[in-house]
Amino acid sequence: MTGPRWTTGVEAAAIRARYPAAFEGTRERIAAAAIVATMLALAGLAVWRLDVSFARLGTGLVQIAAIVGGMFPPTPGTHLAVFMHALGETLAIAFLGTLTGALIALPLGLLAAKTIVPNVFAHFAVRRVLDTIRGVDVLIWALIFINVVGLGPFAGILAIAASDTGSFGKLFSEAIENADRKPVDGVLSTGGSALHAIRWGLVPQVVPVIASQILYYFESNTRSATIIGIVGAGGIGLHLAEQIRVLEWGQVAFLVLLILVTVAIIDLVSSRLRFAIIGRSTVEVG
Amino acid sequence: MTANALRLPPEQAAHLLGHYRAGVAAKRRRLVLGMVVLAIAVVLAGIGGEVDIPKFLANSHRLPAYVWNLAPPLSWANLGNDIAEWFWNFDGWLLLLGDTLLIAYLGTLLGVGGAFVLCFAASANLERRPWIRFVARRLLEFCRTVPELVFALLFVMAFGLGALPGFLALAIHTMGALGKLFAEVVENIDMKPVEGTIAAGAGRLVSIRFAVLPQVLSNFASYALLRFEINVRSAAVMGFVGAGGIGSDLMVAIRKFYYTDVSAMLIMIIATVMVIDLLTEQLRHRLIGLGDRT
Amino acid sequence: MLVVEGLTRRFGTLKAVSDASFVIEPGAFVGVIGPSGAGKSTLLRMINRLVDPSEGVIRFGNENVTALTGRDLRRWRRRAAMIFQQFNLVGRLDVLTNVLMGRVATVPAWRSLTGLWPEDDKVVALSALEQFDIGSLAAKRAEHLSGGQQQRVAIARAMVQEPELILADEPIASLDPRNTRVVMDALLRINRHFGITVLCNLHSLEIARSYCDRLIGMAAGRVVFDGAPVQLTDALARDIYGLDSEQVLDGSARAPEPRVRAGAFGEAAVA
Amino acid sequence: MLVVEGLTRRFGTLKAVSDASFVIEPGAFVGVIGPSGAGKSTLLRMINRLVDPSEGVIRFGNENVTALTGRDLRRWRRRAAMIFQQFNLVGRLDVLTNVLMGRVATVPAWRSLTGLWPEDDKVVALSALEQFDIGSLAAKRAEHLSGGQQQRVAIARAMVQEPELILADEPIASLDPRNTRVVMDALLRINRHFGITVLCNLHSLEIARSYCDRLIGMAAGRVVFDGAPVQLTDALARDIYGLDSEQVLDGSARAPEPRVRAGAFGEAAVA
Amino acid sequence: QDYKASYPELVFAKVPDENASGTTDRWTPFVDYLSRQLGVKVTLRIANDYAAVVEGQRAGNIHIAMYGPASYARAYVTGAKIEPFAIEVSGDGTKGYYSVLYVKADTPYKDLKDLAGKNLCLVDPNSTSGNNVPRYAMNKMGIDPETFFSKIVYAGSHENAVIGVQQGTCDAAFNWWNDEKESNLLRMARKNMAKAEDFRIIFKSDLIVNSPMAYLTTLPESLKAALRNAVLNVATNDPAAFNAIYEGKQLPFVAVTHKEYEPVVELIKFVDELRKKKRAS
Ligand SMILES: Nc1ncnc2c1ncn2[C@@H]1O[C@H](COP(=O)(O)OP(=O)(O)OP(=O)(O)O)[C@@H](O)[C@H]1O
Ligand SMILES: Nc1ncnc2c1ncn2[C@@H]1O[C@H](COP(=O)(O)OP(=O)(O)OP(=O)(O)O)[C@@H](O)[C@H]1O
Ligand SMILES: [Mg+2]
Ligand SMILES: [Mg+2]
């Protein structure tokens, strides 16, 4: 039951003659194929060079079963209070560290966005600074701040803030570049300054993206052991690493579950917050 | 001038203003409440996190202390030799960097694939059935919450030592992390083009391909490349599965306090990060058409 | 035959469309008129199932449109082409691909997904663009077009769908007189020639009167008029639009001596 | 006095506006007409300096608009209010805040940046909305409005700017007859009453003729007509729009017996 | 007591043990005890990475630290101004543990020399018992591991090294070993990750001297004396605190000087030499 083909009268040959470009497109297709081929070739090279083999799969599965079996039932052992305390501590550190990093990164992100700072040099310089911040390992950030404030949660907050600044700056700048230009033009056209255009034309658009990135990093910092453990602030990640090291699988499972619940809660808050900002709109996609 | 002329009589204005206030009151209240909660959280976290600003300021002159140590002894007279001395293991590190890039590439590729498949099921604007969304979101959380080390250990048992367990662990984590970020990018798109395609009878795949992808591809690309960069730097898993790589060598150098090695490797890693970032930028600007706007 | 029964849509407390009922015979050219915010767009979007009705049913032939899901829903949408008030193009894709979107339901999935469109469909899409004088823009990004050009791309997309029903939401709002004619004539032709039903939101009463067989007038969500254009007296129309009786109806009619009517702006509010 | 001299804008190889020159006296109500894609929007955007001219100068009074930067540019934009064809509202903000955007240049920065608008400005913004019957929508998100409602918000924003010049890009495209009148009357009033210059892109020749003191016709980027509405003969207008001589000009005029003219769609292309 | 004014707060840092969990639980009573004895606040910091502890001592904001032997030596070599004053004593009265080489029980290898051309698993480049001591020992035997073995694999962890042997990735692997009752292999066996009977030891290193506790040399003498007194007598003054740490498996701390760590320092220097050798080649 399709509609009538009202297009049957169309003269294909004439159209083709008038718009030859629309029927070529071979160059793009070759380019696309070349990109895919290169990616596959690289993957092949990697597999070969890294000597990847699936040979031992069979025997190992038994041992996996042993470990996974050891994870049941998950149990806090005798450390429940310690774990909960560590979780709280971790949340506090991750929260402040992420927030501080985001606050520092915001102006940097604006400077690194091509749509805001068209000056190539400024833009280039800021982006390279951000690259450098990201390139420096978290362990090094930790050591730098241990020199200043000693071991402890404060050093963890600073190290997280520093290392996240690099990622945030990059992500924020890209969110900003991706924003729709029309509202920004709307604000500018009334005589608004660049600040106004950012505050009213840009921020409402990018806030959901930025909020989700901040919450994601908060979550990620909560579960990652690295910085908080290194700087001697304890934290849930330290306990997790410890339990893995001493092969206490039941407690590992318990800690993972604990973190999973925390992460799910953060995820829930994140969704709520973002949908409050962007408004929910769904259509039934067939 | 004009504005005054169009001013409404006071009662009518007051009425409208009241109407407006009532309309935004709930939102206002939520905003204020949110701010208060945030402020309380900051204070509490500040206490819990033993934040000590005066101490930080008093000791801030020590900020460059560690970095200072990293500087190699360079002299003008002997610059070439000094640099050669500094990068004494350049070849070896380059090889390690290459291996790391390959592992990270494989891990990222697999992870991005998985994330790409799952993200649409996890986003509320394209997936109406809440249970599918719930399952997808929890699955992604599981993948990024179970520590890479646990996955790595399990895979070592299954596949033996080597790169394979390393990049599988990376891939799973990458999938969990990117899946969430991708889903949120998708939730943030303009739905008008999607309506446009489905109104033409397009199915899910086609509307994703033509109405969603053009909007999200640049973000996907940049997230994926950022994750690639993170995977290049992530030393822990690689070292753990015995796959080495530049990250674990850097760790060793930091722990053994081979300062000049640390700075040499850092420079190489930072250069790599810069190259990846430049590539990302090129790709993104192409995708969002920034290049041809000017 | 399109049957709409007791159709209602709420947004929060607001009833954007409220208990609308009408029947549209196959092959009719029906205009929907009414003041801004009357619910015209919402009505059309419900028929295409982009907005779910809060109450009421829509039937087309034997089919209960309101109950469709999945593949059936897609098939229905293919049959009921929609032209959006805000165009709803994919700004970052080129014009031709935007038009080819109208063919997705008929092209095999592997072809459309890889962008390897059949030559035939490209010909159809290009000829549709050419109908509206924008064949030469086929390779341009949609977001770089002028307003009127975008609108014509959106119309071309609906045309190549070869639908049985066209839902056009102010298809000529951004068009100049010539293109207004071109587009309305095109709609009229496929309506007359192929018996395709057209349901068209229009702001210009003149256009509505000259092209439509029948007009449906909406105000504040309700259907307040339903009849042939001749039945729509000026008094009735003024009622629909909430105009005072001394005001003429069509904006296009001479403005009554503008130079003289320059009163204080404040008065306009209650005019 | 607005002076435009040799204004040109290229997009790639395309000249969207090409060597446009004209002078507009203070207090004039000038309509810009021309087919879709003629460069009307680009012209207005250049005057507001949202698009930089490739060549040519724009002067207003003693000021060289093309050379302005920074604070001066912002001051100029405040004086030259722009109404966009696609509204350019911030969809996620409420309607009142969108209108208050028109006041950013006059409100202290700390207030405008924190959103603590003075009561007075809110009253002004609400009054402007009420002029267009949408005062009650002030708290709604702009993206939830109907097309015509959004357009009126955009106009209200321009009004509260207290500009010296209004650049309106098809301000009535999405409006019903009543609102078309309301908006055009409002423009006319502030033009007559306060001597504010209005430069207005219009698609409807009828409206242009009845409201404007003077018309500028554009086609393919060039200014092809410049004179009083009476000077624009039908023949000239047909020329601008590229219509054949037997075609009537205004879309709103009766369509020549639609039922009879039902030719094959393919023929429409060359109609 | 003069130090209280200038040192109102002392920081005690600890790297988590290789072979026990609950580091915080176990050390908190001890730190509380120190605090009571010294009359100043003592804060316990557990850092996951000993580089952080070394850096903190170099910067002077960690006053007392419990090191592993190698990490103490590393801190010393790196120029931290510290001196050891107390050492752990194992249950049998020895002051150390060993690095051992495992092979599969059903293989013919009797001795390290039999492994020529085979694959060897080391733990990671930073491990004392899993890398540094084995290399040092082999060097003394005149074996150059890079040429002697066909392949050297860094397994990444002690467990992975055992798994490597079990799965045949390597023919032999180094690991830590305390005594007949405690070793990494036994621990894995208790968790069903390996069977102890499947493995055989064919080499045992010299004693690796136990972990020291070290303070900053810049601390005032009175404070140092008070610290020594408190730590060396903890087992008698506060048995509960002491037992919380070692659960009765270890004997009380005894005094120690840097001299006992000279061999470990030598080991560290040897490891640094290795790196330079790599450059030469
Ligand atoms: N950013 C851009 N990039 C490339 N081409 C553009 C861009 N903006 C406009 N154009 C082109 O410039 C020409 C003039 O566009 P403009 O928007 O000024 O037309 P218009 O007269 O306003 O038309 P309409 O009545 O349809 O709105 C069109 O052909 C359009 O495709
Ligand atoms: N998503 C939404 N959320 C809340 N209210 C909405 C939404 N969409 C539409 N509305 C409201 O519903 C009413 C009808 O809107 P609709 O777009 O159908 O009007 P319309 O008749 O098409 O008007 P116009 O001629 O101005 O386009 C309006 O008052 C509008 O504000
Ligand atoms: Mg509408
Ligand atoms: Mg335009």
TrEMBL record, chain A:
PROSITE patterns attached to this UniProt entry: ABC_TM1
Ranges for domain ABC transmembrane type-1: 87-270
Transmembrane found in the keyword field: yes
Pfam family, one: BPD_transp_1
UniProt-listed Gene3D superfamilies: MetI-like
Cited SUPFAM superfamilies: MetI-like
GO molecular function: ABC-type phosphonate transporter activity
Chain segments annotated as transmembrane: 30-47, 54-72, 92-117, 138-162, 197-218, 225-241, 253-270
Membrane topology category: Multi-pass membrane protein
GO cellular component terms listed in the entry, alphabetical order: plasma membrane
Keywords noted in UniProt: Membrane, Transmembrane, Transmembrane helix, Transport
Keyword Transmembrane: yes
Family membership: Belongs to the binding-protein-dependent transport system permease family.
Protein name listed in UniProt: Phosphonate ABC transporter, permease protein PhnE
Organism lineage string: Bacteria, Pseudomonadati, Pseudomonadota, Alphaproteobacteria, Hyphomicrobiales
UniProtKB/TrEMBL annotation, chain B:
UniProt keyword terms in alphabetical order: Cell membrane, Membrane, Transmembrane, Transmembrane helix, Transport
GO cellular component, one term: plasma membrane
Keyword Transport: yes
InterPro entries named in the record: MetI-like, MetI-like_sf, PhnE/PtxC
Pfam families, sorted: BPD_transp_1
Membrane topology: Multi-pass membrane protein
Transmembrane segments: 31-49, 102-126, 146-172, 257-279
Alphabetized GO MF terms: ABC-type phosphonate transporter activity
Residues in ABC transmembrane type-1 domain copies: 97-280
Highest rank taxon of the organism: Bacteria
Compartment annotation: Cell membrane
Record-stated family: Belongs to the binding-protein-dependent transport system permease family.
Protein name per its UniProtKB record: Phosphonate ABC transporter, permease protein PhnE
Organism: Rhodoplanes roseus
Automatic annotation (TrEMBL), chains C, D:
PROSITE patterns: ABC_TRANSPORTER_1, ABC_TRANSPORTER_2
Statement: the UniProt record of this protein carries the keyword Cytoplasm: no
Domain of life: Bacteria
Alphabetically ordered keywords of this record: ATP-binding, Cell membrane, Membrane, Nucleotide-binding, Translocase, Transport
Domain named ABC transporter: residues: 2-245
Annotated GO MF terms: ABC-type phosphonate transporter activity; ATP binding; ATP hydrolysis activity
GO cellular component, one term: membrane
SMART domains per record: AAA (SM00382)
Signal peptide, first to last residue: none
Protein family (similarity comment): Belongs to the ABC transporter superfamily.
Protein name: Phosphonate ABC transporter ATP-binding protein
Organism name: Rhodoplanes roseus
Gene name for this UniProt entry: phnC
